[in-house]
């Protein structure tokens, strides 16, 4: 055993450290005695070195373990290679096991399959029910996985809500597919946490061992690509890795780099969409349009761009860059128009948003009552209190709120529980057939009347033809936008 300078490198639980401890202790006592003038005895009892020794051993010896070294090493190994919460082998244990597996000859018909598992809504459960509830859920899931892992299947917890099953012995595609059905049943079964039941669910990404794999990292990378694909599907699902996923991952990473550079540089211009009242086509509102912003992969409004922005958290930064550029344009219009600005609802979960937004209003001298902030949804279960506080703060600034769809239970609006929501934005599909389909026209008219009863205004997108306007002109206060009203224009032409 190699001892470092006392006491930093001393391992008290090693039996060989005991003589070293006593030796260094005696040296310390002698040194102290020399510096204080030597030793002394008195009738009252022990003085000097004896008392120092007694105090030294009383404080140190109880910490010394007399277990044999091999037992201590076994305990340390158990701690290092097992997850402390679930008792499953951890990531380090996985690497050790895979190295042992790859040490043998690679046989295609005996290759291992890796099943990477990720829970749905785990962060939401942690945030709303607490970390103890999340721990109970992870323990319960580990027990279910252990129950499924018989024969050549071995289960690991890699961290957080991520688990892995390694299936040795060369399982076939059909074998794994059938097993995943059982695995999804286990994931979907509700979890009993304290006295309540929490809905489950999860996604699974699958890959097989390859002859060229140098370590477990390359296998996990493929499984993670398949898991990403599985998570893009609603509900519990599983996906097998294929070569196309590597190209999709490369493109996604390149897209993320371009989006980040676009935001950092703020090197873009916005366009604005005239928005008019259906009754007389008077343009009273202007909507901010970001569809003109592009990367090499297409428009910023394309779904792949939106998904990448949300997943990376860049959506909040982009919204703020758009706000600052829009406010710069609006400030020269002298409040002639009410401006509709689209934002992602994640802004409402940022506790700094209201302060930031108030600062922009003051900096550019813009009146809040000339703004409508349109969110993709107001139904954010992650933190309803924070969302409502942000909405109340915006309302206090005079800002009006819009959302795409009702953003939750319609009874909330009829009961007056969400008075901030004064505008409802409806997409092109609501209007495209109203001139030729009586049922579509009646449905839209009834929805507009219902919204009016709840003191909601409607903003209708995608109006392109005169006969559509004729169907809508009867509704006072209805706002429309689309090619018939006007196409996007630069700020200088507003």
Explain the layout of strands and helices:
Elements: H1 17-36, H2 49-60, H3 69-81, H4 91-102, E1 113-119, H5 122-129, H6 131-148, E2 153-159, E3 162-167, H7 173-188, E4 191-193, E5 196-198, E6 202-208, H8 216-231, E7 237-240, H9 243-265, E8 271-277, E9 283-289, E10 294-295, E11 298-299, H10 303-312, H11 314-330, E12 338-343, H12 353-364, E13 371-375, H13 384-396, E14 400-404, H14 411-414, E15 421-426, H15 438-453, E16 457-461, H16 466-472, E17 479-481, E18 489-490
Parallel strand pairs: 6-7, 9-12, 12-13, 13-14, 14-15, 15-16, 16-17
Antiparallel strand pairs: 1-3, 1-6, 2-3, 4-5, 8-9, 8-17, 8-18, 10-11
Helix pairs in contact: 1-2, 5-6, 6-7, 9-10, 10-11
Shape: elongated
Number of separate strands: 18
Overall pLDDT confidence: 81
Classify the secondary structure makeup into a structural class. alpha/beta
- Taking pLDDT < 50 over at least 5 consecutive residues as the criterion, the unreliable ranges are 1-15, 38-47, 56-68, 408-420
Radius of gyration: 33 Å
In percent, how helical is the residue content? 40-55%
What summary fits the major beta sheet?
8 strands, mixed, barrel
Strand portion, in percent? 15-25%
- Summed up, the helix count is 16
CA(first)-CA(last) distance: 80 Å
Main-sheet strand order equals: 8-9-12-13-14-15-16-17
